C-alpha cells in the first residue's frame, strides 16, 4: 500500500513526521488542541473537509497529496488536475509558449514533478545533441538525460560538480515532497559514473553547466520559474528551467552560432 492509499490519519501522521513537527507544533499552527490532532491521527476522530485543507496548508503538503488525504477521508478532491491541452489551461499553455519562445536563442524547457520533459524551445537540442535516441523518447527525463553515460554526460566538462549539484537538488526536492518515484530516480542517478566532486568552495555564486558543443566549451547558469499560488495539481508541479550564458564565449556562440 502506497502512502496515498493509507488511512487519512496515517497520512496526517506521516506528513507531520516528515516535516519534523510534533503534535503540539501542528496543533498550535492549526489552532486546535493536541488531543484533537492525536485523535485525527489515530482515527478516533473523523476530520472535516475544512480541517484537512487547513492541515494540508500548515504542513505544506503538495496539492496532489492533499487530494489523496481528502479522498481517504471520503471527500471529493479540492484541486483539479488538467493537461496543458485542456481548455482551462489555455492561459498557462500560452504563458509557457511565450516564455520559451522569448528565451531563444538561449535554451529553456518545462518539466513536471519527476523531471520529465513537457516542452522545450529549439535551442535545447543544442544541449542534447548526440544523446542516445532512447533517452529522448517521451517521457524523456532531463536528469537522466544529463547524467546517463549515453546522454549528455560525456560532453559535460564539469561532470563531477554538475552531478553533485543535481543529486543535491534532488535531495531537497525529495525532502519537500516525500515522493517515492524521485527517491528511485535519485538511486538510479547516483549509480551512474561521474566521479566525486572535490571542488573547493570558491568565488562562484552558482554551479554552471559546462558542456562541449562541437569545438566550443559552453557554460550556462540556470534559473527555475514556477507558477505563483497554483490551484491546479498539474500547474503546481510544473517548473520552467531557463539557461543563460555564463561567459562571453557562450553569449557569442548563441548569438552567431560560431
Automatic annotation (TrEMBL):
HTH cro/C1-type domain residues: 12-66
InterPro entries per record: Cro/C1-type_HTH, Lambda_DNA-bd_dom_sf, MLTR_LBD
One Pfam family in the UniProt entry: HTH_31
CDD domains: HTH_XRE
The protein, known as: Helix-turn-helix transcriptional regulator
Naturally occurring in which organism (per UniProt): Rhodococcus parequi
Amino acid at each position: 500500500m502506497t502512502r496515498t492509499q493509507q488511512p487519512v490519519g496515517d497520512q496526517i501522521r506521516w506528513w507531520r513526521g516528515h516535516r519534523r513537527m510534533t503534535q503540539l507544533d501542528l496543533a498550535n499552527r492549526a489552532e486546535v488542541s493536541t488531543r484533537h490532532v492525536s485523535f485525527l491521527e489515530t482515527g478516533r476522530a473523523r476530520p472535516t473537509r475544512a480541517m484537512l485543507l487547513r492541515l494540508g496548508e500548515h504542513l505544506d503538503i503538495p496539492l496532489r497529496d492533499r487530494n489523496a488525504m481528502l479522498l481517504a477521508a471520503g471527500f471529493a478532491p479540492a484541486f483539479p488536475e488538467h493537461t496543458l491541452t485542456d481548455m482551462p489551461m489555455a492561459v498557462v499553455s500560452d504563458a509557457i509558449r511565450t516564455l520559451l519562445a522569448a528565451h531563444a536563442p538561449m535554451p529553456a524547457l518545462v518539466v513536471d514533478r519527476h523531471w520529465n520533459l513537457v516542452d522545450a524551445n529549439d535551442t535545447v537540442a543544442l544541449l542534447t545533441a548526440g544523446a542516445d535516441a532512447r533517452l529522448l523518447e517521451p517521457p524523456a527525463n532531463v536528469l537522466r538525460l544529463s547524467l546517463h553515460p549515453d546522454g549528455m554526460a560525456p560532453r559535460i566538462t564539469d561532470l563531477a560538480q554538475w552531478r553533485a549539484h543535481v543529486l543535491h537538488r534532488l535531495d531537497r526536492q525529495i525532502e519537500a515532497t516525500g515522493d517515492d518515484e524521485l527517491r528511485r530516480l535519485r538511486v538510479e542517478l547516483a549509480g551512474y559514473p561521474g566521479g566525486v566532486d572535490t571542488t573547493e568552495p570558491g568565488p562562484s555564486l552558482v554551479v554552471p553547466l559546462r558542456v562541449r558543443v562541437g569545438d566550443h566549451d559552453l557554460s550556462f547558469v540556470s534559473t527555475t520559474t514556477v507558477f505563483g499560488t497554483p490551484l491546479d495539481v498539474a500547474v503546481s508541479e510544473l517548473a520552467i528551467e531557463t539557461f543563460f550564458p555564463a561567459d562571453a564565449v557562450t553569449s557569442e556562440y548563441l548569438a552567431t552560432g560560431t
